[in-house]
Amino acid sequence: MAKHVFRCVDCASEFPAEVPRWRCGCGAPLDVDVKEIFPRAELSKRRPNLWRYRESLPIQDDGSIVSLDEGMTPLVPVPLAGREVHCKLDFLFPTGSFKDRGATLLISKVREWGIREVLGDSSGNAAAAIAAYAGRAGIDCDMYVPEDTSPAKCAQISAYGARLVKIPGPRQATTDAAMEAAASRFYASHFWNCWFNHGTKTWAFEVWEQLGQRAPDAVAVPAGHGSMLIGAHKGFGELLAAGYIGRMPRIFAVQAARCAPLHEIWKGSLNAIPEIEIRPTLAEGISITKPIRWKQMVAAVRETGGEVLAVEDEALPPLLRAFARRGILMEPTSAVPFAGVEALVREKKLGARETVVVPVTGHGLKAADKLEKLFGKNG
To answer: What angle do CA 259, 298, 343 make, to 5 degrees?
Structure first.
């Protein structure tokens, strides 16, 4: 495999990727460009997991790979807003969320670096994924989570062997506490470490395969720290660069209106993250006030002709119920992009014949307590 180089997304400084590092000296996040692409003619001979795209995944040594045979989740058509939408069922991963895509890459890189202790922070799904893959690799893990993280997610994280540290206050307080603790062990953050996004890009590769090796017209994704959004841009971008597709799909980033800094940046054409008043939201998984990769997120939307939307919490329960009645039990955060699609259809921003793909990012069983309150005993 080719060697890779870290590049700062702000100052463009470069560093060897063989040396553990999670941010630039200027304080900005790092990225790694991947020029290699998997051979499309060979895919039919490979196992149906995300490592089938091995050439596009920046891990040097096959022996470093930490995997649970994850990937190739179903793509299912479901009626929504008077049209058909393709749902990418990424809640059907080993830990119940799409974050396994990123965790398998991140922990594989950590193992390749020879690191034996890590810490991370998350509202729940990334914590569970990183804890699970760290456990599989035999890597010691501390995981910081907001104090109000659902009991089901906390139990899952602990079950994988991670030491759970609950932090009171807003989501940002959890990140602040984790970064302070990172002085003593490697910070395996899913939003600071670019390896995670090279894992999430595989959902774009899979969608391309499942649509007969073509790109959809549009994708709508939930946007918090942006791992699904940046992953979509990377994945479809690499397919475009290889000549495997002729155009990029429009990428729509959807936030909860009660915590929507990216939407504020978008509509105000701002050059910095604004201070926002955060309000409690059902979409706890994307309740992020300061997404550190916001520039990459905005660029992904702008370059593809998409848009950043914000939807109200009141739009989520009807969608959760409607999808559950069709066999798809998702956590509240997962309903956000579907609410975005409804808004886009109302505003006539999606053509009736356009192929639209939306990922279902997390399983409803992770938020059973919230769903019980929303639906009641009779659903």
So the answer is: 60
- pLDDT score at 2: 53
> Which residues of the chain are modeled with pLDDT < 70?
1-2, 377-379
Query: The tokens of 250 are what?
Result: 């429009």
> In this structure, what token pair is assigned to residue 242?
């290889």
DSSP state of 44: G
Give the burial string for 7-28 (b: 16+ CB within 10 Å, else e).
bbbeeeeeeebeeebbbbeeeb
Q: Between 368-375 and 151-159, two packed helices, what is the crossing angle to 10 degrees?
A: 160
CA 5 – CA 13 distance, rounded (Å):
10
Two structure tokens written together for 10: 């702000």
Domain 99-187, classified CATH 1.10.3720.10, yes or no = no
Angle at 183 between CA 182 and CA 188, to 5 degrees: 25
Q: Is the pTM of this model over 0.90?
A: yes
Task: Give the H/E segment covering residue 181.
Answer: helix 171-181
The Cα 310–Cα 286 span in angstroms is 12
E-strand stretches of the chain: 5-8, 14-16, 30-32, 75-80, 83-88, 117-121, 140-146, 163-167, 186-187, 218-222, 250-256, 307-311, 356-359
pLDDT at 100: 98
pLDDT one-digit tens code per residue, 207-241:
999 999 999 999 999 999 999 999 999 999 999 99
- How is residue 218 written in tokens? 């549009």
Which pLDDT score is estimated for 184?
86
Are 233 and 304 within 8 A, CB to CB? yes
Task: For 234-288, write each residue's pLDDT tens digit.
Answer: 999 999 999 999 999 999 999 999 999 999 999 999 999 999 888 899 998 898 9
Which tokens hold the place of 226? 């942006």
Domain with CATH 3.40.50.1100 in the chain: 75-97+195-375, 99-187
Query: Distance between CA atoms of 360 and 331, rounded to whole angstroms?
Result: 9
Give me the CATH code for the 75-97+195-375 domain, please. 3.40.50.1100
Beta strands 75-80; 83-88: pairing state = antiparallel
